[in-house]
Each structure stands twice: as C-alpha cells, then as structure tokens.
Amino acid sequence: KARSAPNAAPKAYGIAEITVTDPETYKLYIAAVSPVVAQFGGKYIVRAGTVVPIEGDAPNGRVIVIEFPSLDIAKSFEASPQYLAIAPLRQKASRTRLFLVEGTPQL
After folding, report:
1. How far apart (Å, rounded) are the C-alpha atoms in residues 62 and 96?
2. What is the reported pTM?
3. How far, in Å, are 18, 43, 105 from residue 39 at the CA level?
4. Measured between alpha carbons, how far apart are the two ends of the chain, in Å?
C-alpha cells in the first residue's frame, strides 16, 4: 500500500478591493509594500487586472490578490512592523476592503 505524503499547510490569500483617492501617495505605498510582501513569501496573483462582473455588483476600484505560503504567514505579514510602518500610506491614499482567506488543503 502506497504511503501518502503529509499534507502541506493550505496557502492563504490576501484579497483587497482598493479605490485609489491619492495616486501619488499610492505609488509610494506600492514601491514600499512589494519588497515586504516578498520577504514573507508572498506572490501577487492579481494586481489590478480587468474585472468582468458575472453576478451582483462589480468590485469598486482595483482588485489585488496576494498568495502566501500559509494563513499564519499571511497574518504575520499583516502584523509585521515592516508592514505596519507603510500601511498608513495605503490608508491615506485609498479606501480599502482587505481580508485574508485560507485556501483548500494541499493533498
């Protein structure tokens, strides 16, 4: 009987709906946040691509999806001193809905 490999922790996704209100300050945020995302193993999956609404209201503004190795790492990113130091740039430059979602378990 074949033995299966141990299950890896599910990946997690940071999902944001962002309406930029101050483009110049938002550019500063983008430049600052990208290296911090990478430091926590994050990878941009969606970064303001075209949105095609199918049912219900379309999101307002940009949609961002960042994949992290696990929910614990995603939460560590959000709570890190590095991110907390630059989050006010985004908060000043946009209206944002932001949440973390755990993916399905890896088999």
Report:
1. 9
2. 0.86
3. 22, 10, 23
4. 17
